[in-house]
């Protein structure tokens, strides 16, 4: 049974699509968002190209599924999902999808994808400090990322390590806190086996939670719950993933209003074993060959 999806797509000045999924619970949820095209039983989306272009220039586009919906500004208290339309992101996703990609290349592709997504996610989010410095030619007004404001990376082991590998090259003065979460293959329930999070994060911390696959949502929800217990608000954390699917996005939307998720692509379904389809397989196994 298909699930009726109504969502808004708003393009910022950086042309990064932002999706706000709202889905009534159903047995087999499906979600049609750019840039994927399901091969069967698609949800039909319709809009005129002239109207699209006219309203695209205004910075807000509403896409309607099945029935017309009111145009409403996206609330800051709703979860937003960002799928940056960068050709390099599409390239590395394609490399990751290929079952013939060997482990070293797969791991490198994951690291490059993580670098791009973290770059996009840190836009307009990092605190800066302004000042003046002496250049070789003259006094220059400058702006640095404020090293006094804590920025943390939380990779979810083990696949999260490869996606977060280049985080320190993007973000100055970061700390990395490892979090190991395994999923029972029968029940699909998460178990925390390694927790290096602090008892309490410093006030004002910004946290990037890195989990390559958002499938059923159990692992990422468990990780974010641990962060909230340690003083991190929904708007103080951003999720970085390679591939996301509707069941995980629906859980995050219900539990963490105001959260921002950055992903390389949104795939339509999750199978009975909890794997994203078409996905890219087990990201941990393919990253490390074990």
UniProtKB/TrEMBL annotation:
What cellular component terms from Gene Ontology apply here? cytoplasm
Q: What is this protein called?
A: uracil phosphoribosyltransferase
**Pfam families, sorted:** UPRTase
Q: Which NCBIfam families match?
A: PRK00129.1 (NF001097), upp (TIGR01091)
Q: Which UniProt keywords apply?
A: Allosteric enzyme, Glycosyltransferase, GTP-binding, Nucleotide-binding, Transferase
Keyword Transferase on this protein? yes
EC numbers for this chain: 2.4.2.9
Question: Biological process GO annotation list?
Answer: uracil salvage
As cofactor, the record names:
Mg(2+)
Instruction: Name its pathway.
Output: Pyrimidine metabolism; UMP biosynthesis via salvage pathway; UMP from uracil: step 1/1
- Which family is it part of? Belongs to the UPRTase family.
Gene3D superfamilies linked: 3.40.50.2020
Start and end of every Phosphoribosyltransferase domain? 83-290
Question: Which GO terms fall under molecular function for this chain's record?
Answer: GTP binding; uracil phosphoribosyltransferase activity
Q: Which domain of life is it from?
A: Eukaryota
């Amino acid at each position: 049974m298909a699930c009726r999806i109504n969502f808004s797509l708003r393009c910022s000045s950086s042309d990064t699509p932002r999706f706000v999924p709202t889905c009534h619970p159903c047995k087999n949820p499906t979600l049609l968002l750019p840039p994927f095209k399901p091969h069967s039983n698609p949800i039909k989306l319709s809009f005129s190209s002239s109207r699209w272009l006219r309203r695209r220039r205004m910075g807000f586009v509403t896409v309607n599924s099945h029935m017309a919906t009111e145009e409403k500004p996206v609330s800051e208290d709703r979860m937003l999902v960002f799928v940056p339309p960068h050709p390099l992101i599409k390239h590395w996703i394609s490399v990751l999808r290929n079952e013939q990609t060997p482990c070293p290349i797969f791991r490198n592709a994951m690291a490059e994808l993580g670098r791009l997504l973290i770059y996009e996610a840190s836009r307009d989010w990092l605190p800066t400090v302004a000042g003046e410095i002496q250049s070789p030619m003259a006094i220059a007004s400058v702006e640095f990322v404020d090293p006094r404001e804590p920025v943390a990376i939380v990779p979810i082991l083990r696949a999260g390590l490869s996606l977060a590998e280049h985080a320190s090259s993007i973000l100055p003065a970061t700390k990395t806190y490892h979090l190991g979460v395994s999923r029972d293959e029968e029940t699909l329930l998460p178990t925390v086996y390694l927790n290096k999070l602090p008892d309490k994060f410093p006030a004002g911390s910004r946290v990037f939670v890195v989990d390559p696959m958002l499938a059923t949502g159990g692992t990422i929800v468990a990780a974010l719950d641990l962060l909230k217990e340690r003083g991190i608000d929904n708007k103080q954390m951003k999720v970085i993933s390679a591939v996301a699917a509707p069941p995980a996005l629906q859980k995050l939307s219900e539990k963490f209003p105001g959260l921002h998720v950055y992903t390389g692509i949104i795939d339509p379904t999750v199978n009975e074993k909890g794997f994203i389809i078409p996905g890219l397989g087990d990201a941990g196994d393919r990253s490390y060959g074990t």
